[in-house]
Amino acid sequence: MRIDIKGDPAVSYQVINKLIGTLQDLNENRYNLLLAEPVKAYEIAYPSKEPGEQTGPDVKFTQSYVLDYARSRPSVITIILDKNNSIYYYLGTQNAKGNNPVLTKTDFSPSGIHELLITMNHDVLAKMEDLRKKKQELKLPEEDFEKQQEEILYDKTATIVMIKLTAASTYINLMNILDEMKVCGIGRYAIIDLADYDKNLLSKARF
Fold first, then answer.
1. 98-111 confidence digits (pLDDT tens)
2. Which of 135 and 97 is assigned the larger pLDDT?
3. Where in the sequence is the domain holding 16, given as residue range(s)?
4. How far apart are CA 36 and CA 144, in angstroms?
5. How many domains does the chain have?
6. pTM
7. Which own/partner contact pairs does 93-97 have at CB distance under 8 Å and 24+ positions apart?
């Protein structure tokens, strides 16, 4: 079952996160995130905070599992959405062995986070373009197209994105970064909690 969550663009992410936390207490972590104006809709699953917080098919889908998985992959970026539509990012994940991240500030402009993700995920986007041409020119069956698309998007070398939001970010910030996941061909991404590790980096970067 998926639960519809419809929010105003300006509503604080803190409100959305509190609602999601309540739903996760009820073992519900699959949602349809909806926005009326501009029209946006995304199906998404939130990893639970700790093992044992949920049952059923998503019992292993926890934040610690997601982070451990990401640490084993070569191309990972952590994106933090903050107040005034600002974005911070660092390469890798929190507490990754040997990782001494530099927090960089960017934005939602074409030359901002969009350009960065396009550059990082260039190989995947090139393969997807070739696949679309193949589908059109060779009349590739939809079933075969979807299978090959999944193989490309979820390849172990494809970029993985960890999405985190501060209490000062907004619902439209979340929806906009999900737009970028789609446009930039990011197959693996997760929305997880802001850790103390991230907060320490933010406190230094904001000044």
1. 667 889 999 999 99
2. 135
3. 3-121+159-205
4. 34
5. 1
6. 0.90
7. 93/67, 93/162, 94/67, 94/162, 94/195, 94/197, 94/198, 95/67, 95/195, 95/197, 96/71, 97/71
